[in-house]
Amino acid sequence: MLVTLDELLPEYLNKDAAVGAFNLAVFPDIPTLISAAEEMNAPIILQASPSVSEFIGYDYWGMMAREMAKRASVPVVMHLDHASNVEAIWKALDAGYSSVMFDGSQLPFDENVRITREVVERAKKYGVSVEAEIGSVAYLGKDTHKDQLSDPKEAADFAEASGCGCLAVSVGTTHMMRTQTANIHFDLLEEIQNAVKIPLVIHGSTGLPDDQLVKMRHYHVCKVNIGTALRVAFDKGLRAELAERPNDYIYKDLLQRPLEDEKQVVKHKMEQLGF
Q1: Going by C-beta distance under 8 Å and a sequence separation of 6 or more, which residues neighbour residue 247?
Q2: Residue range 171-200: mean pLDDT, rounded
Q3: Which of these is catalytic: 29, 81, 151, 261?
Q4: Cβ atoms within 10 Å, residue 219
Q5: For the segment 45-69, what is each residue's pLDDT rounded down to a tens digit?
Q6: What is the rounded distance in angstroms from the CA atom of residue 80 to the CA atom of residue 98?
């Protein structure tokens, strides 16, 4: 069934588990990821960035996710990830996404609050939940986002003033890491969870070692974003398949291995997250 973050995440505030949020790239990702979730009996958050949503089409992502979620035996969220402008969010709302993220992490505090509140108010009319971000998680090899750890008091003030349903915080991860060498500042995470009462979100979690994914379950981290690990698994699987069958041009055959490799990564991450 299709659900929102607000319907799903609060029950994990005090559970020894967190919900995995996995980034989509192509349509076959949707049934692959839902199948992984059903096999693990776990809820799942499917998320598409604005660039992926624009490339494939917001309406198509919304339509496909809604139909497949209806048939799923586990809760499914269709989420817009890292939208830094409201135009992308309005498109996602109209397309039937069940949750959206406004990323105002590069804006001054007051501006971030103002726009997030605007998004929250419009999203309410659609019955859609809103994720926001305070602090900033950098991107490996890019200068689009600064690297700034979240301040507990600022996070609490932002959560209250913005009205967002869940809050992404920066506590030591970096987007687009291919190695599991990041380190969570668990003392900072504890300070934040003591100050902020809504579910917390960790971005850039591909870079976290398995033991830190497990440890995060004991905090108020309810949503864990993982994207790069899926893309790496898919890429390796596809390259291997093409190397073994260079003359094969049947897409559905060539995609079996990379999609299965992607699925196994999702199941492994879900296991670490408590399912």
Answers
A1: none
A2: 94
A3: 81
A4: 18
A5: 999 999 999 999 999 999 999 899 9
A6: 8
